[in-house]
Write a structure and sequence with these properties.
The chain has eleven helices and eleven strands. It is α/β, with parallel strands linked by helices. It has a single domain, classed as Aldolase class I (TIM Barrel). The strands form two sheets. It has an eight-stranded parallel barrel, surrounded by five helices. Strands 6-8 form a two-stranded parallel ribbon. Helix 2 packs across helix 9 and helix 3 crosses helix 10. The two termini are 38 Å apart. Bound molecules: iron/sulfur cluster (SF4). Iron/sulfur cluster binds next to loops.
Length: 319
């Protein structure tokens, strides 16, 4: 297969994706990364987006095997913020080029339709930002209500295109259901953010290829392919972290598949070092997620920082 020809195609089939995924010669990899950076610069420019995420609850009614926050977990560090606390955090952080605000929680029905609608309404009334909901799967009538309240985007990852693995890790949920939710959200006007987990236990090359094909089919406006992080309270706590070279390849291939979509990477040091973030921006990623409220690696609540005093979470070293 001719690398240059594959890189110039609009759509890629599984053989071509396998070919890109198997590249190992440094010259070939340079060509891949050069191409993906060129596409980013051509379609999106050199500008980097900053979006902010507020994780306001870490309760979850689901039981994904790789996650600390599952309902059955002995994980002791639980918290829920009130709507007023959430709005106070947002008031402290919505400045300095934040264009998009992610409201994030586990599947936590404590926050009902009206509470979330109220938050969306207040944010849209007071600030010039897009609102992205990251609330796992909810009812279809709730998606509609939140769209009417002003929400712009919904983050719902498919995590893997392998049905058996999806069902195993989510303890019997169905991948087809997740895809139906994503398609429904898209149909009623949300911009979608989705992606896979790179390095999910038992993941094969064929799984990754199918993940990329699903991404190409769903055509999300935002892509979030997160690296697998072994979590302390899970049965995969000793599983190896994913090799960064695979993350680079998948980021570059995602950029080649979806030229105009935003590719998001987390600012969290649990995920990437500063150097790694820079590398990902240099091969196709264009958006940094600043996590303003979350547990840190010692399971202590991380409070929003005063950005005038500290650039710890601002990503300013990258911009
Ligand atoms: S839905 Fe999300 S927060 Fe809930 S258990 Fe699964 S991965 Fe964790």
């Amino acid at each position: 297969m001719n690398l240059q020809e594959v890189l110039n195609k609009e759509e890629l089939n599984s053989d071509e994706l396998r070919f890109l995924l198997n590249l190992s010669d440094p010259k070939d990899l340079d060509l891949l990364f050069h191409k993906s950076l060129g596409i980013k610069n051509l379609y999106l420019g050199r500008y980097k987006n900053k979006i902010a995420s507020v994780q306001f609850s870490n309760y979850c009614e689901n039981n994904c095997l790789y996650c600390n926050f599952i309902e059955e977990s002995i994980f002791p560090h639980r918290y829920r913020l009130s709507p007023e606390e959430i709005l106070e955090i947002i008031a402290n952080m919505v400045n300095e080029n934040i264009t998009n605000l992610i409201l994030q929680s586990g599947a936590d029905s404590y926050y009902d339709t009206d509470m979330i609608s109220y938050l969306i309404y207040r944010i849209k009334k007071d600030y010039n930002v897009e609102v992205t909901l990251d609330l796992v799967e909810r009812r279809f009538d709730e998606y509609r209500a939140w769209k009417f309240a002003g929400a712009d985007n919904y983050l719902l990852k498919f995590n893997t295109a392998n049905e058996k693995n999806y069902s195993f890790f989510t303890q019997n949920n169905k991948l087809s259901e997740r895809i139906n939710h994503i398609k429904y959200l898209k149909r009623i006007g949300y911009k979608i953010c989705t992606g896979n987990i790179i390095g999910l236990p038992y993941q094969t090359n064929s799984d990754i290829i199918n993940d990329l094909i699903l991404l190409q089919t769903l055509k999300p406006e935002m892509i979030l392919n997160s690296p697998f992080i072994p979590k302390e309270f899970t049965k995969f706590k000793n599983w190896a972290k994913v090799n960064f070279s695979l993350v680079k390849k998948i980021t570059a291939i995602s950029r080649i598949l979806l030229k105009k979509s935003d590719i998001l990477i987390s600012n969290s040091s649990d995920m990437f070092t500063m150097e790694e973030k820079k590398e990902l921006f240099n091969l196709g990623a264009n958006t940094l997620i600043l996590e303003y409220y979350k547990l840190n690696h010692k399971n202590k609540l991380r409070f929003p920082v005063n950005r005038k005093k500290s650039s710890a979470y601002s990503g300013s070293k990258l911009f």
